[in-house]
Amino acid sequence: MNNNGLSTLQTEFCGLSFNTPIVLLSGCVGFGEEYTRVSGFSNRDAGAVCLKGTTLEPRLGNQPHRIYETPDGMLNAIGLQNPGVDHVIKEILPALDFTETRFIANVSGSTVEEYYEVTRRFDDSPIDAIEINISCPNVKEGGVAFGNDPSMSARVVENCRKATRKPLITKLSPNQTDIAANAKGCIEAGSDAFAVINTLMGMAIDIESRAPLIGNNQGGLSGPAIKPVALLKVHQVHQACRDHNIPIIGQGGIASAEDALEFIIAGASAVGVGTALFYDPLICKTINTGILDYLKRHKLPSIDHLVGTLQLNQFQTAKCGC
């Protein structure tokens, strides 16, 4: 309990103090200012805000259509549209209120050298932490290739580690053979934490034109449709890395306090909210209230006492009586 004997949403992540376990996910809230225009919304309802993916030079992104709603989910292929790291540091960061919440940069690149350089420039900025996006499925170069190849993942992390002393969060791809093995390699290379998971690759087709509905042909699937996959991946990474005490941001389809609690029980120290904001911009308040009610009901002082408490079912193989 806190000093007043009450449950609290406050938690620590990579040495950073979060007001709540919620992280607003990269690509869903622009550069931290978009939802502040919505009445009743406050960045204070999130422990951290992950800024839009940033590259060394400005990018226009993919051709339209870039977003398509699917059953219980959404396909997106924005293509990392952004104004470039220098503009973000000089023009955007000074306008952010760092007393409201923590801000995390999201670094993307087409080469290992680009990841290094963007990370280096963010190191000399007020940003609180850096997320390495090695798993974006919406670009034709870099991104996915780095995230799905353990040796390349480790190489990117190793170079970014050399470029900064800030906490490094590696965003892991679900589109790979062994996410736990990749995570272990990233820890050895210098990752301080993980974001699990990025979107799954998907497609939608217009049956009349017989063409993909997304201009990029394929996109990243997010929303409740991917939640079971995300939960399993969080559990697998937590099990593989628990001896290293590496925190995880669990993400993928969280749309309620119950969803968030499942991820925390599976091994997440914080939870990412993204797609749900598109239809309920004030959902963070609802999730925070629900998590706090759960902690009080179970007499838990904080979510730290809930992380990774999943009790797996025990079973035995039935013996044939023949």
UniProtKB/TrEMBL annotation:
The family database entries (InterPro entries) matched by this protein are listed as: Aldolase_TIM, DHO_dehydrogenase, DHOD_1B, Dihydroorotate_DH_1, Dihydroorotate_DH_1_2, Dihydroorotate_DH_cat, Dihydroorotate_DH_CS, Dihydroorotate_DH_I
Do you know which Pfam families this protein is assigned to?
DHO_dh (PF01180)
Which residue ranges does the record assign to the Dihydroorotate dehydrogenase catalytic domain? Answer: 9-294
Residue positions of the active site: C136 (nucleophile)
Q: What is its main location?
A: cytoplasm
**Pathway(s) per entry:** Pyrimidine metabolism; UMP biosynthesis via de novo pathway
- Could you give the cofactor binding note from the entry? Binds 1 FMN per subunit.
Could you list this entry's UniProt keywords, alphabetically sorted. Answer: Cytoplasm, Flavoprotein, FMN, Oxidoreductase, Pyrimidine biosynthesis
Q: Does the keyword Cytoplasm apply?
A: yes
**Highest taxon, organism lineage:** Bacteria
Q: Which GO terms describe its cellular component?
A: cytoplasm
* EC number per UniProt: 1.3.-.-
| Reaction(s) catalysed (UniProt annotation) | (S)-dihydroorotate + A = orotate + AH2
The protein's required cofactor(s) are namely:
FMN
What is the protein's known function?
Catalyzes the conversion of dihydroorotate to orotate.
Q: Which HAMAP family match?
A: DHO_dh_type1 (MF_00224)
Record protein name field: Dihydroorotate dehydrogenase
Q: What is the lineage of its organism?
A: Bacteria, Pseudomonadati, Pseudomonadota, Gammaproteobacteria, Chromatiales
